[in-house]
Amino acid sequence: MNTLFLPELREMLAEDRTDELREFCTALHPARTAEFMEGLDDEETWRVLQHAQPTLQAEVFQYFPVDRQIELIATQDEKQIAVLVTQLPADDAVDLLRKVPEDRVDAILALVPAPDRRDIRRLQTFPEGTAGAMMTTEVACLAETLTVRQALDELSRQAERLETIYYIYVVDTTNHLRGVVSGRLLISAIGRPETTLADLMKTDVVSVKVHDDQEQVAQKVAFYNIMAIPVVDDANHMMGIITHDDVIDVVREEAAEDVQRIVAVKPLSDSYLRTPVLLLSWKRGFWLLILFFAALSTAFALRMYQSWLDTYAWLVLFIPLIISSGGNSGSQSSTMIISALVTKDIELSDWGLIVRREIIMGLILGGIMGAMGFLCALILAPTPFTALIIPITILCVVLCGTCLGSILPLIFKRMGLDPAMMSNQFVAGLSDLLGILIYVNVALLFLS
């Protein structure tokens, strides 16, 4: 946080030094302007923003943390907020307004110009997490009958209201998407000004449907390596575009959700600090209770062999090592398989190859860890022969862990369940229980 400038900025506000405040808003990149305002409270922040032109005001506003953006929209003057909302890309405005009380949203939108209000209301009808909710309707669409000269003239008129012009989308008279022309291709055709867009365009257009899931959209943009992707309805009418910055936000959001699932937390619908403690406790506690009872089953398994373990007390010292070896190897395999499923590196039909690979890895890793365990066991075991219990058990447990970790995500995926949410928790519980059973039975073979 840049705090050195705050006293001077507050002094400007106190003395109402309009010219200096206006210069502060315009002299720096909007991101830097927002950074210098971090130490101000909401009222001070809003007063500073009023010294910028509406377009610049919106640019600076978008660099504030989301929580602060929501707070400003929810508390500041409705007329001024309406001006700001008008300048924001429609998709960004919708995302923010979803997190503001409905009566406040209605009051703000009543002051927004009718065309912008219609765009926002239409985007609000699409479920959150779909392509329709992500898209912006500010898109460069031109008729296929326009010539290059006419297209450039029309783009110059549209440019001010467009979020970006990576591609020019070509439509017919009924707004059906017919093709796409890159900005580079259009510029290179200036020497042929009478060429029509129909002759320049590529007709094999990569697009998504309005109700496609946002994760599918992100995967398609990444696969085709494009800066923006058009959104169409079921009849192929042009609806809007999704730009790469929105896709980056989706990737970050999906990654955060996957991390939360892997550690047995139901994904949060809001930020960590904005999620009520009771709700957060429920999301975390549900799976913790399942893991708790899984650990209890391990305790009962040990209870069955308590008298036997009392006789061979040195074996107890290796129980944490045995359990952690199976659990850690299983969690590694599970996480790698889940990641590969998400990125489409593997399919369910690859299960045979996956299991074979994990068996080989289990043997290699179990062999290495078992050899190290054997060296430790030589110190604590009564004889070198009984010390063999440890490496054999570790080899078997790691092998079981890698197999469980690779198979369970595939099974849950096949059942239509979320492998990220389910797998690691079951792998951990089963690995612990199997680890104890394998350990005791291997020991019985050597000591009986």
Protein traits:
448 residues; mainly alpha; MgtE N-terminal fold; CBS-domain; Tetracycline Repressor, domain 2; 3 domains; 3-stranded mixed sheet; 23 helices
Task: Describe it.
There is one protein chain. This protein has helices at 6-14, 18-27, 30-36, 42-49, 54-61, 66-75, 78-87, 90-97, 102-109, 114-124, 131-134, 148-158, 183-188, 197-200, 214-224, 244-262, 277-304, 306-311, 319-342, 351-380, 384-387, 389-414, 419-447, and strands at 141-143, 167-171, 177-182, 208-209, 228-232, 238-243. Helix 15 packs across helix 16 and helix 17 packs parallel to helix 23. It is mainly α and 448 residues long. The mean pLDDT is 85. The chain has 3 domains: 6-124, MgtE N-terminal domain-like (MgtE N-terminal fold), CATH 1.25.60; 141-260, CBS-domain (Roll), CATH 3.10.580; 277-447, Tetracycline Repressor, domain 2 (Orthogonal Bundle), CATH 1.10.357. The strands form 2 sheets. It has a 3-stranded mixed β-sheet. It has a 3-stranded mixed β-sheet with strand order 4-5-6.
What is the gist of this entry?
Helix content is 65%, strand content 6%. It has 448 residues and is mainly alpha-helical.
Topology:
Layout: H1 6-14, H2 18-27, H3 30-36, H4 42-49, H5 54-61, H6 66-75, H7 78-87, H8 90-97, H9 102-109, H10 114-124, H11 131-134, E1 141-143, H12 148-158, E2 167-171, E3 177-182, H13 183-188, H14 197-200, E4 208-209, H15 214-224, E5 228-232, E6 238-243, H16 244-262, H17 277-304, H18 306-311, H19 319-342, H20 351-380, H21 384-387, H22 389-414, H23 419-447
Parallel strand pairs: 1-2, 4-5
Antiparallel strand pairs: 2-3, 5-6
